[in-house]
Amino acid sequence: MRIRYELVTSIICLILIASCAKKRITFKSDADHVQQQLAKLAPVSLSHDLSYLPAEEIQVVHHLVKAAKYLDTIFLQQVYEANPALLKELKKSSNTDEGTYLDFFKTMFGPWDRLDENKPFINTLPKPDGANFYPADMTKDEFEQWLTDHPEDREAFESNFTMIRRGGDRLVAIPYSEFFKDQLEPAARHLRQAADLTSDKRLKTFLLSRAEGLLSNDYYQSDMDWMDLAGDIEVVFGPYEVYEDNLFGYKAAYESFICVVDHEESEKLETIVKYLNDMEGALPIPDGYKNFERGASSPIKVVNEIYTGGDAKPGVQTSAFNLPNDERVREAKGSKKVMLKNVMQAKFEKCWIPIVNVVLAEKDLQRVSFDAYFNHVLMHEVSHTLGPGQITINGRETTVNKELKELYSTIEECKADVLGMYTAQWLIDKGIFLKDLEKTLYASNLGGMFRSIRFGIGSAHGGGVAIQLNYYMDKGAVRVDKDGRFSANDRRMKRVIRDLSRELLLIQAKGDYAAAQKFIEKYKVIKPEIQTALDKLTDVPVDIRPSFPIENELD
Ligand code: ZN
Asked: pTM value?
């Protein structure tokens, strides 16, 4: 699962139109429009000082980067069959605006604008729902009918790791390992070379089993090995997310995140995790509702991104991910949540600061910091493991999720945000977080809310933030001045955060659907003064467009 914290792109249903033939390029959008869209993504150079790594480990990273480049080629094909030809034509196009179109094509991994509901900016064809995972002219019905007629094909057809193609009048499933052999073989070679060089035993085990997985099409063992990584280098490499397949959500796209572990943050997390039970005990609800019986929770790691490949590259950049997706591995070893700190910092500087400059009152502008923002996100993730999960209603064993149904994710995201603040303050009071953090915690929390609701309150996260902002405004903890600028009253915020935590936790503890509905109806709204603030943000970049200096260091 991937977390972008913002901008949930709604994919509209498009009619599938067949198109594989090589074609001349027509520019659907004018160059100015493409330039404007490109400007929504602020360019940023993403790197991290690797000088503390031994020379051979830097070589390991270089091999991983080289391997990841092959995933770019694969993903380009997975998105659209004509992509390689389009890219070639764009590169030699004599159009004076060629640079702009080429940049945007590379950013979007195809001729569709991922920032604007996949509208085409080159040619006019809508994006196929099934990307290039299925024959362009295949309908959903045809696929399903085939499986009804050929039940023995089901496993291969629904596999995350096969391409569906036509073979005469039949539909056939071709394993990725075969279809993308030309890229996977050299990629696997680089993983093996990296494995030879590294002195990190667990990394070596993972790289060797993943190289094997790329060629055998079986990723189970290497996903298991990935869970055991514990050294400096953290690498994601393979087919994972199925978001690109909007037809069935079966087919995984190849992606890579090459990262190094942030030791300072990771140590901090280890400390925090030791206090999980104490934090549960400190929740502002009666003890009977507290949940001390949770199993081992998933580990959280903080890393810095050095390079990405394939599906990790286009459009809005990932701030954190939770992998693997294989339920068998999750059952056996849990999953790993990885937060990309330097990506978050870049987003903070390029997209977050320009927002608070517009929406916050002068005195609060002096009280924002990346540290406060980052620690809140960190505690948001930790807070998902706090509070009621398994509950009993009138003797019936159930879960909060089952009882709150479609309202669950909004309430849960809201809870994680609010408890994130509550627990951050708790850690400050205990002396585990620096006292200094308190100065910027509340104003930063307020400023960040505008980034989250900027893209609407339809998503669980945006909706959860709208609830907080309105609740805080109603209770006088957040004020709007005559210029329409917002400010936080820290003392009141502390009290109101406690109140809101209690309300949300009790809704969850009681599995009270009706109360959740009433709460959401009342608070999940955009008040006029909030809308006025949001209207001022049109020129602020929506995300970042990273470049990776490590590319220039490769031999
Ligand atoms: Zn969350």
From this structure: 0.89
